[in-house]
Design goal:
FAD/NAD(P)-binding domain; seven-stranded mixed sheet; alpha+beta; about 600 residues; Arc Repressor Mutant, subunit A; six-stranded antiparallel sheet; 20 helices; Elongation Factor Tu (Ef-tu), domain 3; 4 domains; globular
Length: about 600
């Protein structure tokens, strides 16, 4: 049967990408349907019950600045907050929060249910229809046809998902959930090329059976938050996590049983995340290390389950038990859920554009692990951008694309559309060329204006941000023009603040004319002055390269006709079809000399 209503945007999948996509599309004014296999697993934390971290925390603050929900939800449901890298430079400071995983998914689901313009239904997608190169409808296992003008596929690890525990393997989207079997063949029928990736998860153990005397306590920190919109609520009770280590016995046990691991026995052929390896990978790749760090992370306030972060595995269950018991703090620990690896389909690089729309099907958008990424934060950021652009397409608004110099979200999407992925993509601060500008503390100043223009941020929040910006700028100027006599020598407040021994707080205690504007604004003034030279240099670099970076390549441009361009460059450019010269310059296999030839070819084409 045909569902009686046609939607502007259909979002397939209720994971972290799907949630942000649905919010963004609905808030732009598009009639939106969120269609998910199970309403009870919306925003489920399939792996680590945590949000944020290096690079990831930056993106959560960017999602919030643009009008997304992840930051607000983790602020309400977090049970331990910390600022990582706080002893290093501010560019790499990163908020992270342990979540009560059930509270997180419940809070997110309830927010979706209350959202105007959003219809939520349970259903399993079997296929989608395309007519004359344009998306038309999705078909479900339940026999219902949903018509839409655009669709966002955010299927996570469900497409032909296959779970591995030792020699045993079985279909599943994750432990306890069925896989999606119809979507992959449908994508292939419509010319989308797929590959296989792998990820994994560690065991969960019963907290009552952990010997915390043999672990190091990691207490929570005060004052860490994700959202710029400080909603009124009482923060959940804050608890500690714990650190322990594998032992020499652990190493010997894994080495003796590598042949039983699905990863090393040949059962798993696909590649897993390099920066979040299984314990088997760690033992092989870092053979000289005698022990590896493990984090014991509670999964919630109302459960005894503890996530054993650091020993993701696909070893048989009996070996997993021995492995757990070889760890001093876990000698008597009871496993509640075994570790497993999962293989799944993803869309090979080069088939989506910067708005996350598929190149060969109008109205088809892809977001999350289907694009080869790993992590809740990477997925949510893509969902937000896909939702903004799918709704924008229907509403005849211009595409929304963030530059690499504007946001980590821009860095990630640019990487996804210009680089071939042979492993799951994870965001790190090291991926950004201008990371001093893309700090987690200034995402509102960078991006909230966009959120307002897109209709995702209301006027009151926008005006609050602009007032903050004006105050920071005026106070920064005042610091440069107010002079003090120190030991007979004149120096501006700015020069004094730039001295390594001084902070805004210490200066405020010494000089009465320095006002307390609150921690956030004080920090922005101090940071802007202390790092002014570096920030100016990065802004000059951006301005210098912007003309080349933004030089447009016409749609349908024939790279094969450029005289003097190497064959490899022609092949790569034709495959990835970059929209700007900047994108072209970051494609693997395209050299600086190729870019010079390309620019000459573009000049001739325009003349």
């Amino acid at each position: 049967m045909d569902f009686p209503q046609e939607f502007d945007v259909i979002v397939v999948g209720g994971g972290h990408a799907g949630c942000e996509a649905a919010f963004a599309a609905a808030r732009r004014g598009a009639s939106t349907l969120l269609l998910t296999m199970n309403l009870d697993t919306i925003a489920k934390m399939s792996c680590n019950p945590a949000i944020g971290g290096i690079g990831k925390g930056h993106m959560v603050r960017e999602i919030d600045a643009l009008g997304g929900e992840m930051g607000k939800v983790i602020d309400r449901t977090g049970i331990q907050f910390r600022m990582l890298n706080a002893t290093k430079g501010p560019a790499v400071w990163a908020p992270r929060a342990q979540a009560d995983k059930v509270a997180y998914q419940t809070e997110m689901k309830h927010r979706l249910e209350k959202e105007p313009n959003l219809h939520i239904l349970q259903g399993t997608i079997e296929a989608f229809e395309v007519k004359n190169g344009q998306f038309e409808a999705v078909l479900t296992q339940e026999g219902i046809r949903y018509r839409g003008k655009t669709v966002i596929l955010s299927s996570g690890t469900f497409m032909r998902g296959l779970l591995h525990i030792g020699e045993t393997n079985f279909p599943g989207g994750r432990a306890g959930d069925k896989p999606s079997t119809g979507l992959s063949p449908c994508l292939e029928r419509h010319g989308i090329k797929l590959g296989r990736l792998k990820t994994g998860t560690p065991p969960r153990v019963n907290k009552r059976t952990i010997d915390f005397r043999q672990a190091e306590e990691q207490p929570p920190e005060e004052g860490v938050h994700f959202s710029y919109d400080r909603e009124e609520f009482t923060r959940l009770p804050q608890i500690s996590c714990w650190i322990t280590y594998t032992s020499a016995e652990t190493k010997a046990l894994i080495q003796a049983n590598l042949h039983k691991s699905a990863i090393y026995s040949g059962k798993v052929q696909s590649i897993g995340p390099r920066y979040c390896p299984s314990i088997e990978d760690k033992i092989v790749r870092f053979a000289d290390k005698e022990r590896h760090q493990i984090f014991l992370e509670p999964e919630g306030l109302n459960t005894e389950e503890v996530y054993v972060n650091g020993i993701s595995s696909s070893l048989p269950f009996d070996v997993q038990i021995e492995m757990i018991h070889s760890i001093p703090a876990l000698q008597n620990a009871q496993i509640m859920r075994p570790a497993y690896a999962i293989e799944y389909d993803y869309v090979l690089s080069g088939q989506i554009g910067p708005t996350l729309q598929a190149k060969n099907i109008e109205g088809l958008y892809l977001a999350g692990q289907i694009n080869g990424t790993t992590g809740y934060e990477e997925a949510a950021a893509q969902g937000l951008i896909a939702g903004i652009n799918a709704a924008g397409k229907v509403l005849e608004k211009p595409p929304f694309v963030l530059g690499r110099h504007e946001a980590y979200i821009g860095v990630m999407i640019d990487d996804l559309i210009t680089k071939p992925l042979d492993e799951p993509y994870r965001m790190f601060t090291s991926r950004a060329e201008h990371r001093l500008l893309l700090r987690q503390d200034n995402a509102d100043l960078r991006l909230r204006g966009y959120g307002y223009e897109l209709g995702l941020i209301d006027e009151a929040r926008h005006l609050k941000t602009e007032a903050k910006r004006t105050l920071i700028e005026s106070e920064t100027e005042r610091f440069r023009h107010v002079f003090k006599q120190i030991r007979g020598k004149g120096a501006s407040l700015a020069q004094l603040l730039c001295r390594p021994e001084n902070t805004y707080a210490s200066m405020m205690a010494e000089f009465s004319e320095i006002e307390d504007h609150g921690t956030d604004i004080n920090f922005q003034i101090e940071l802007g002055l202390k790092y002014a030279g570096y920030i100016d240099r990065q802004n000059q670099d951006i301005a210098k390269f912007s003309q080349v970076e933004l030089l447009r390549i016409p749609v349908g441009f024939d790279f094969q006709k450029i005289v003097g361009l190497r064959n490899e460059a022609k092949e790569k450019l034709s495959h990835f079809t970059p929209q700007t010269v900047g994108q072209a310059s970051r494609i693997s296999g395209v050299s600086p000399a190729d870019i010079q030839v390309l620019m000459i070819g573009l000049k001739h084409a325009h003349s």
